[in-house]
Amino acid sequence: MIRVLLVDDQSLIRGGFRALLDAEDDIEVVAEAADGAAGVALAAEHLPDVALVDVSMPVLDGIEATRRIAADPALARVHVVILTNYGLDEYVFEALRAGAAGFLVKDILPEDFLHAVRVAARGDALLAPSITRKLISRYVTQPPGAGVHPRLPDLTNRECEAVTLVARGLSNNEIADRMGISPLTAKTHVNRAMVKLGVRDRAQLVVLAYESGLVTPRDS
Which positions does the record annotate as the modified residue 4-aspartylphosphate (predicted)? Predict the structure, then answer.
């Protein structure tokens, strides 16, 4: 059973999402919160698999709520998905830096919303390759090498290549084709790189790759 926490200051939004989720046999909403501070507290209390967190809320916004959840080792299993009204708005990349696994636009189709919750619960990043590319072009602006990760040298050449391709927006199947390996092996390389670099998920891997200078926007 996938356990979901809803954090949004609009009761109608929460009610609509709850109705969709509660109708599914494999998903249950364990709690709701109307602000980020309450959301963080409820995440600690219920340990949901997925926390759907609005980006703009009173008391504590979604970015800071995400940052607090991601910083707490006891909440490592909680995958935060940011909810936004505007798609690729100014907060999205900041949310990824804070530790979000991805984001959803609130007018998403119901079937896509349910699929996204299941994807997030598995620990996969909720970033389609096309979205990754848009994020790269719009938000990654700092100079290459501005914050080189100390454990990058721990990666094997194949792991480093896989991380580079993830950061360029390729899916596991595309990475497999590019590297001449199976999709399962591609996923293994990506997962091992995440463990070595200490990142929560694929979204954080993209952020790290650009912030460390492993990949630059012009490479993509």
Answer: 54
Structural domain boundaries, residue 108: 2-126
Alpha carbons 58 and 34: distance in angstroms, whole number: 8
Closest by CA to 39, choosing from 66, 79, 71, is 66
Distances (CA, A) of 122 to 16, 78, 79, 147: 23, 11, 9, 29
Residue 139 lies in a domain: no
Q: How confident is the model at residue 90 (pLDDT cuts 50, 70, 90)?
A: low
Look up the pTM and report it. 0.73
Mean pLDDT, rounded, of the chain: 85
Look at residues 143, 148, 123, 118 and name the one whose alpha carbon lies nearest to residue 218: 143
**Scanning the structure block, which residue is given the tokens 């590019």?**
178
**Predicted local distance difference test score (pLDDT) of residue 145:** 46
| Whether the Cβ atoms of residue 136 and residue 220 lie closer than 8 Å to each other | yes
